[in-house]
Amino acid sequence: MHDAVAAVKWGILGAARIADGAIIPGLVKSSRCEAIAIGARSKERAQAMAQKHGIPRAYGSYEEVLANPDVEAVYVALPNHLHVEWTRKAADAGKHVLCEKPAAMTAGELATLEGADPALKISEAFMVRHQPRWIALRKILQGGEYGRPLSFSSLLSFTMANEQDFRQKPEFGGGAYYDLGCYTAMAARYVFEAEPRRAFAALERNVGGIDLFTSVILDFGDGRHATFMVSLAQASSQSIQIVCERAFISLPQAYVPSRMNPNTIAIDTSADHANSNIYTLAFPALDQYEEEVTNFSRAIRGEDVPYFDMKDARANAAVADAVFVSATSGTWIEVGRN
Predict the structure, then answer these.
(1) Distance CA 30, CA 12 (A)
(2) Residue-wise over 146-165: b if at least 16 C-beta within 10 A, else e?
(3) Would you say 150 and 185 are in contact if contact means Cβ atoms under 8 Å apart?
(4) Which of 13, 83, 133, 206 sits 20 to 30 Å CA-CA off 276?
(5) pLDDT digits (tens, 9 = 90+) for 50-91
(6) What are phi and psi of 159, to 5 degrees?
(7) Contact (CB, 8 A) for 37 and 57
(8) For 185-243, what is each residue's pLDDT tens digit?
(9) Alpha carbon distance 307, 320 (integer Å)
(10) Is the pTM for the entire model greater than 0.90?
C-alpha cells in the first residue's frame, strides 16, 4: 500500500459483542484499517478474540493498548458508563478515538474531554451515518427538490432477553433511550440539520430501574417536529419516515440495513391519499461498520469524508438530558438549558 494512504493501526478497548461481531470484522475487511491490539479485563478473553480475528497483540488491561506506541486509533467498546473515562485516557495517550454510543450519559460529562489535543479525531460511533444511503438522503434533502423536511418519525425496538446484559443496569447506562433513543434523536438532528429547541417525553421503567419504553417529541421550531418511540421490550422495528413539503420519504431497515440485499429509500410524491407515485432508490448491500471505520481512518489521514466531532456528541447528549428531565416533570423542557 502506498505510504500516503497507509492503513491506520487500531486498538480495541473491550472484548464486547459489538467488538467481536461488528467492529473487528469491519476493521479486518477494510483496506484502510489494521487491527493490531485488543485489551480486556480478562487477558484470556482478549487472547481468544485476538486469535479468532488474527489480531497480533492481546492484553489483560486497557492501559496496555494505550501504551502501545504503534496504536494510532482506538475503538472504545465498553459499557456506557465507561465511555467518557476511557475516551479521555485514550486521547491523553495521543490516540484518535471512535467511541461506542452514547458518548456520555449526560452532556455535562463530556466536559471531561475539553482540552484534548485538537489534532486528534474523536467521534461518537453512529455507524448509520456512514451508510451511502444516509449520505444520499442528506443530499436529497439539501437539494430542495421536495421542499423542506417538516416531520420526522421513527420506531426502533427489540426484545432484550438477557438479564445479565449491562443494558439491564441503570448504573451502567442501561435502558432503551441510551441504547436506542440516542440513534433516533441523532437521526432527527441529521435530517433537519438543526438542534431541537425543546423536548417532551414519557417513559416506562421496569423494576430494575431502566426505561423499557420511551416516546419522545422534539420541537425543532419553524413547524418542524420529530417523534420517535424506542423500546427494549417489543418486537423488532426500525423505520424512518420523513414528510417534506412535496414528498413522503421512508427508509425501511433504517438503522440495521441488509448485508445481503439492496437497501432502499422510497420517495412518494403523490398529491393525495388516493394515489401513489413512489420512486425507489436502491443501494448495494453493505457492512456499515466497515464503512464507519474506513471513513474514520480516512478522516485521520486528512481526507474529506463524513466526520462528526464531539460538538455533535454534546448536542446529542443535550437531547438525552432534556428527555429524562421531561419524562420526570411531565412538561416540555428546553434542550441545552439543563
Answers:
(1) 15
(2) beebeebbbbbbbebeeeee
(3) no
(4) 133
(5) 999 999 999 999 999 999 999 999 999 998 899 999 999 999
(6) -100, 120
(7) yes
(8) 999 999 999 999 999 999 999 877 789 999 999 999 999 999 999 999 999 999 999 99
(9) 21
(10) yes
Is the dihedral angle over the CA atoms 66, 71, 74, 77 positive or is it negative?
A: negative
Output the CA torsion 318→322→328→331 (10° steps).
170
Which of 275, 257, 277 shows the shortest CA–CA distance to 267?
277
What domains are defined for the chain?
A: 3-125 (3.40.50.720), 129-286+317-334 (3.30.360.10)
Given a contact cutoff of 8 angstroms between Cβ atoms, the answer to whether 38 and 57 are in contact is yes
Cβ within 8 Å of residue 232, ≥6 positions away: 157, 158, 159, 160, 167, 175, 176, 179, 180, 210, 212
CA distance linking residue 103 with residue 101, whole number of Å: 5
Largest pairwise CA distance in the chain: 64
Cell 500516503 belongs to residue: 4
Which 8-state DSSP code applies to residue 298?
A: H
Cell numbers for 226, please give them. Answer: 420529530
Report the relative pairing of strands 73-76 and 8-13 from DSSP bridges: parallel
- Phi, psi at 284, each rounded to 5°: -60, 150
Task: Give the position of cell 417513559.
Answer: 203
Q: Find the Cα–Cα–Cα–Cα dihedral 21, 23, 27, 29, rounded to 10°.
A: 40
Distance, CA of 113 to CA of 92 (rounded, Å): 10
Contacts of 229 (CB under 8 A, 6+ apart): 154, 155, 156, 157, 213, 214, 215, 216
Which residue, among 105, 323, 108, 318, has the nearest Cα to 199 in the 3D structure? 323
